[in-house]
Design brief:
228 residues; disordered C terminus; two-stranded antiparallel ribbon
Length: 228
């Protein structure tokens, strides 16, 4: 699963040469066990492959659930206030408990509201943070889809996540890169060579950064294949 790269040789004072530890270690997609280990290695092998679900629908459901919980607690607090007005309206003018008197009903309701409001705000915050991530470009999305279709690392239902195109985010940083890729996608979509480009993403999956860099610098011919 791990590949040792860039070994250095050490030369001793007597001229003898011995191998040292590798300069760096990378994970190889080819060597990774089938299943989630292989998929995780692939998604981590290149920034443009780091594509995941944001679960926008589920986030909305959770927010609506907590929102309605708060609505019910709000109504419960209002009813408690009305009951308090009938019993002793003066007690609504202070938060201090009368000596020897138990905490008011409102005290316990507000504690519930505090806990629920904290949950609500946490989900809102997390949803906003996730929504701020970039979406994968069409090229990035198709590259991941192609790999999943060719390799089938998981059972169909579990690798179905890539089909939710509008619900995907990428961990790749840089909006400028995304805008450039989108512009390139637009031009490729008009070209018959576009679909031919996708298979040439797959040789990058060796997990060898040096090989990946050579692939990036290799010019592409008019037919979509790398020039020799």
């Amino acid at each position: 699963m791990l590949r040792l790269c860039g070994r250095k040789s050490n030369t001793s004072s007597n001229g003898a040469v011995s191998d040292s530890k590798p300069e760096y270690i990378v994970r190889s997609v080819d060597l990774a066990p089938d299943g989630y280990p292989k998929l995780a290695t692939f998604l981590d092998s290149e920034d443009q492959f780091s594509t995941y679900r944001r679960f926008g629908y589920l986030s909305s459901r959770l927010i609506l659930e907590k929102q309605d919980d708060l609505r019910q607690l709000e109504q419960e607090l209002e009813r408690a206030d009305k009951r308090q007005v009938k019993l002793c309206a003066e007690e609504l003018k202070t938060r201090r408990c009368i000596e020897g008197q138990a905490p008011t009903e409102q005290h316990f309701i507000l504690k519930k509201i505090e806990d629920k409001f904290h949950e609500y705000c946490t989900i809102l915050r997390n949803t906003r943070e996730v929504a701020a991530y970039n979406k994968p470009t069409t090229r990035e999305w198709k590259a991941v889809k192609t790999w999943l279709s060719n390799v089938n690392p998981l059972y169909p239902a579990e690798q179905h996540f890539a089909d939710f195109k509008e619900d995907l985010i990428t961990l790749r940083s840089g909006r400028e890169h995304a805008q450039l890729e989108s512009a390139v996608d637009g031009s490729f979509n008009q070209s018959p060579a576009y679909s031919a480009n996708l298979p040439f993403v797959l040789p990058w999956l060796s997990g060898d950064p040096e090989a990946n860099e050579r692939k990036r610098k290799q010019p592409i011919g008019t037919d979509g294949s790398p020039k020799i």
